[in-house]
Design goal:
Rossmann fold; five-stranded mixed β-sheet; globular
Length: about 120
C-alpha cells in the first residue's frame, strides 16, 4: 500500500529579482517574493539568496560561475517568476535563458500582482 503524502506536490519556480545595488533591500524583497511563491503553492528557488553567502559577486570569475550555476538550477524549474519593472543585466540574461529553454516567464509588480509584459 502506497503511503499517503502529507503535502501535495509543489512545482519549483525560479525567483528572478534584483540583487546588485541596494543589496539589503533587494535581498529582503527576494525573501518576500519567495514567500509569496511558497504561499501560491510552489517551491521557490532563489539562488541569489544562496550563492552570495559563499561567493563574491564583485569577482567577475565568481559572478560568471554563479550565473552558470543559476542557469543549471533554472533548468530544473517549471517557471521563472520575475519581480519588478527594473530588469538588471543578470535578470535579463536569466529571462533570455528561460525563453531559450522554453520555460514560462511570469512577471509580477512590486506588490506581487501578476502583470502582462511585452516581449
Amino acid at each position: 500500500m502506497e503511503k499517503e503524502r502529507k503535502y501535495p506536490y509543489k512545482p519549483l519556480v525560479y525567483i528572478c529579482s534584483p540583487y546588485r545595488g541596494d543589496i539589503e533591500t533587494n535581498t529582503q524583497r527576494a525573501r518576500e517574493f519567495s514567500r509569496f511563491a511558497l504561499d501560491e503553492g510552489n517551491i521557490p528557488l532563489a539562488p541569489h539568496l544562496l550563492f552570495p553567502q559563499f561567493m563574491d559577486d564583485d569577482d567577475p570569475e565568481e559572478r560568471e560561475l554563479a550565473m552558470l550555476m543559476n542557469i543549471v538550477l533554472l533548468e530544473k524549474c517549471r517557471e521563472v517568476w520575475v519581480l519588478g519593472s527594473d530588469i538588471t543585466k543578470g535578470m535579463a540574461y536569466e529571462i533570455q535563458q528561460a525563453k531559450i529553454k522554453k520555460r514560462p516567464v511570469r512577471y509580477f509588480d512590486q506588490d506581487f500582482k501578476e502583470v502582462a509584459r511585452e516581449n
